[in-house]
Amino acid sequence: MSQYWSPIVQSLTPYVPGEQPKHQRLVKLNTNENPYPPSPKAIAAMQAACADSLRLYPDPNSDQLRQVISQYYGLSSDQVFVGNGSDEVLAHIFCGLLKHDKPLLFPDISYSFYPVYCGLYEVEYVQVPLAEDFSVRLADYQQDNGAIILPNPNAPTGIALGLTEIEVLLQQHPHSVVVIDEAYVDFGAQSAVTLIDRYPNLLVVQTLSKSRSLAGLRVGLAMGQAHLMEALERVKNSFNSYPLDRVAQAGAQAAFEDQEYFVECCNKVIATRESLIKALQQCGFEVLPSAANFVFARHPQRDAATLAAGLREQGVIVRHFKQKRIDQFLRISIGTDAECQALLTALQPLLK
Ligand SMILES: Cc1ncc(COP(=O)(O)O)c(C=O)c1O
């Protein structure tokens, strides 16, 4: 603690990102990145954007990119907001739409950045326990709230809610903004984007970090009716008017335009996930049903932290959370078939 810090800084508990190793050649299955490269068309667009024009500021509103995304989803441009990774978009959402007199609700096991933003923006919150099987029970959200945020599929469990259930939630809470964080939606869940025109309280958040292999570019988006986007614009223009640089705008746009490559990569990840789940089950793991690009698994006879450490010694990194209820689970990102095979091989001596 420093005498120079603002009081709010003294009270923060910052988010701890998964390890990004600097030197070693590791099989990296710890931060849910895509094992396949970005679309070659996105790479070409970014290379073309590295030009004289970089001396000029980028379009502050990313108009062209928002246009492409809105066409992709059948929305209008004023229903799309973009930011520097969905983490930044979420930060603006917490600041601009989730702070009310009544508490924000989210699951007890969920994206661990949510409580961090609550700390930063002083948002009061209640964590609603997931059911015994780690599913979201909508009935438990029938309590006083100012807003609700849920990842769908949930992280780190991978379990998805159906669109009908999301719609029930929207109908049950017409006076609250309901944020559906769809970071992993393209790997097997249904997007709530199709509900936007009917629900003024719905806000959908997505990212290009997972299904579009652009975690390094930092582009995220929010979609909802124009009055919600306006709140986010107001926060953004009070924070950083140029969140997306020229390279990011060009790359993100080309990634959205290359539908064929996107579908091919998602399908490969899904196929590998299904074979990894079977292989883990054969090794005795219990694996939660996953609609994401990771699986959440526990072994009834092996301590998860010990397994994670044993894997690391063999050059395979997975994510282990020390949090109550899930401290016996490993979250394993879906790699290539070869990377998942390396994981299974490294598990063998640890399970003997
Ligand atoms: C549920 C969820 N939401 C949002 C994010 C943030 O993604 P990004 O900031 O890379 O867009 C993540 C990243 O892991 C996540 O798991």
From TrEMBL:
PROSITE patterns: AA_TRANSFER_CLASS_2. Keywords: Amino-acid biosynthesis, Aminotransferase, Histidine biosynthesis, Pyridoxal phosphate, Transferase. The modification N6-(pyridoxal phosphate)lysine is found at K210. Pathway: Amino-acid biosynthesis; L-histidine biosynthesis; L-histidine from 5-phospho-alpha-D-ribose 1-diphosphate: step 7/9. Its EC number is 2.6.1.9. Residues 26-347 form the Aminotransferase class I/classII large domain. GO terms for molecular function: histidinol-phosphate transaminase activity. Its cofactor is pyridoxal 5'-phosphate. It catalyses: L-histidinol phosphate + 2-oxoglutarate = 3-(imidazol-4-yl)-2-oxopropyl phosphate + L-glutamate. Homodimer. Belongs to the class-II pyridoxal-phosphate-dependent aminotransferase family. Histidinol-phosphate aminotransferase subfamily. HAMAP family: HisC_aminotrans_2. This is Histidinol-phosphate aminotransferase. The lineage of its organism: Bacteria, Pseudomonadati, Pseudomonadota, Gammaproteobacteria, Oceanospirillales.
